[in-house]
Amino acid sequence: MKCKIVIFLYWIFPNKKWQAYLIQKHFSSCERCQKRIDSDTHIKSLLISAEDLHPRPDLWTDMEEAIKSYPKIRKPVIPESKPIIFPKWQWIAAALILTGLIILIPIQILKNRPDAIQKTTRNQIVLKSIKIEESTAKAYFFQSKNPNRLIIWAQKTN
Questions:
Q1: Terminus-to-terminus CA distance in the chain, angstroms?
Q2: CB count, 10 Å around CB of 10?
Q3: Can you give the pTM of this predicted structure?
Q4: Is the pLDDT of residue 98 over 90?
């Protein structure tokens, strides 16, 4: 029964790949179908035996000549890279510029930052005593982030 289904599928789909697949899977394992393969000329056309392969005796010599006659491709020549050599005056100039930057940048930063110590010495505040309701008070000084602002807190002591 299985053979009839496979044969029916073989004849209904005349695709060479499909037929080769069926031959490989079923016909190679079924003895009855193998006898049918030997007698059927259509199925024999799908099969290739080792006897059918007869290479020409001059095949390899023809291939060798074709390979030798093929033009050779030259590899691009990449020149060797040379190290970059700077003249002495460029090294000296670079060293001087770096030294100048190392010296000038901190000076510029210190020059531009608000210096609270310098401003308090210029604008001195002198506080001798604080009295709240005829008694002396304790004074607290707070310097804010703004150098122009000073907060004075006074607290009554008992």
A1: 120
A2: 20
A3: 0.24
A4: yes
Q: CA-CA distances (angstroms) from residue 38 to 10, 18, 54, 122, 139?
A: 16, 19, 21, 120, 122
CB atoms within 10 A of CB 9: 14
52-79 pLDDT per residue, tens:
666 677 777 888 888 888 887 788 888 8
In degrees, rounded to 5, the angle at the alpha carbon of residue 17 between the alpha carbons of residues 12 and 22 is 65
Residues 6+ apart with CB under 8 A from 77: none
Can you give 112-152 as a three-state secondary structure string?
A: HCCCHHHHHHHCCCCCCCCEECCEEEEEEEEECCCCCCEEE
- Report residue 141's pLDDT band, with 50, 70 and 90 as the boundaries: confident
Q: Indicate the residue type of 80.
A: E
Give the model confidence (pLDDT) of 126-138 as tens digits.
777 888 888 888 8
